[in-house]
Amino acid sequence: MTNAPLFIFLEATDFQGYPAGGQSTFAERMVRAFPGEIALAGIRCDSGPVGKWTTTTIAGIEYPFFAVRHETRNSAKPLVPTRIRNLIDYRRALPKILASGTRNLFVQAPEIILALSRLDNLSVCYRYPGVQPPLDRSRYRAPASVGRAFESLVARILKNADVLLATADKSEIDSYGSRQSRYISRERLTWFPTRYDEKLFYPRNKRQAREKLGLDIDRPIFVSTGRINRRKGWDLLLDAFAIVVNHFPTSQLIFVGDGEDRQPLESKAGQLMQRGNVVVTGHMPQEQVAIYDAASDVFVNASHFEGWPNSIVEALASGRAVVSTDVSGARQMINDGVNGRLVTSRSPTALAQALIDAFNMGDVSEMATSAVSKYGISTLRSELADLWPSIR
């Protein structure tokens, strides 16, 4: 590297949207907030070299890039859990990554913290993408005792981090601080919400957005974005939407994204409704996600739990009414009955009624955008530098 970057961002992503999920999305936001100023360590989805520093170009800007492995874009659940692969690959690659001389590291994956093992002579800023025990969010079922032990092991290392950012509801941050007070005091955890790109997510003309996507101008359209897996509650959403279709027979539910549960989702949708009522787009770049948000009448999130949902922030920034289950962050962004509906019961009937109510709200763009206006990426760089003096 010819010019020393402000920091190295270590993550298991290609920094261009893969794999789908909140961590990859936040990584994209960070790249946009620090154009050409940071180095990236991640995965490679093309045939380029791995195991050494090269460069990658994102949105026309070149970044130093270290790929720890090749990976094929695939929504299927891998045989070996991704966290284990990340731990192994980063532990092997870290000597070469750190040979660059940069000692400022930004991390948001607990297994990469385990790969670091010790934070001596490093300035680490760690972002918790939600503060539930990490293995509780896993696609692989693990005993609760293993999840608690894993969380504590990570906390023991993180006690030596310079900056700890928590992307979650403040009550959940308090709960984490209580659980891990042996290693990390609550005062060390700084609330740091997810961000949206103001150049992509903003109120657009719904008709024009639908014309771009080839969608029917007049049919009721409900949109959900993100990874398709069990914790996102797609089964609840399908049960609820089957009720909505009884009220609005031409309505359409569009899942913008992909994931290991795509096949069972499409199978269940086929059993409940007519072909065409439910559509799965597959992976989409952020530019397309923004157009789908703009094309919707209502955005819906049915997750079991979240950190601070990117998808809700983006939909509100797009001026759309949002219906969400009562996950972390939803209460802070959704004013029930004003810019959407908050559903406290995981009942298909309750969720269906909320979707119908939100559809009938009409234009909520002003109330929606005002709820998230402070979460844009335009202030991300300065806010992070205030909290992390090493990168000033």
Concise description?
With 392 residues, the chain is of the alpha/beta class. It has helices spanning 22-33, 82-98, 110-116, 144-158, 170-179, 206-213, 234-247, 262-272, 286-295, 310-317, 330-333, 348-359, 365-372, 380-387; strands at residues 8-10, 39-44, 53-58, 61-70, 104-107, 123-128, 163-166, 189-191, 221-225, 252-256, 278-280, 298-301, 321-325, 340-343. It has an eight-stranded mixed sheet.
Report the sheet with the most strands, covering strand number, pairing sense and barrel closure. 8 strands, mixed
Tally of helical segments: 14
What average pLDDT do the residues reach? 93
Helix-strand pattern, N to C? EHEEEHEHEHEHEHEHEHEHEHEHEHHH
Strand order of the largest sheet: 3-4-2-1-5-6-7-8
- SS class: alpha/beta
How helix-rich are the residues, as a percent range? 25-40%
Low-confidence stretches: none
Number of strands: 14
Strand content: 15-25%
What general form does the structure show? globular
Provide the gyration radius in Å: 21 Å
Textual characterization of the structure:
This protein is of the alpha/beta class and 392 residues long. It contains 14 helices and 14 strands. The protein has helices at 22-33, 82-98, 110-116, 144-158, 170-179, 206-213, 234-247, 262-272, 286-295, 310-317, 330-333, 348-359, 365-372, 380-387, and strands at residues 8-10, 39-44, 53-58, 61-70, 104-107, 123-128, 163-166, 189-191, 221-225, 252-256, 278-280, 298-301, 321-325, 340-343. The strands form two sheets. It has an eight-stranded mixed beta sheet with strand order 3-4-2-1-5-6-7-8. The chain has a six-stranded parallel beta sheet with strand order 11-10-9-12-13-14, with helices on both faces. Strand 10 (252-256), helix 8 and strand 11 (278-280) form a beta-alpha-beta unit. The protein is globular, with a radius of gyration of 21 Å.
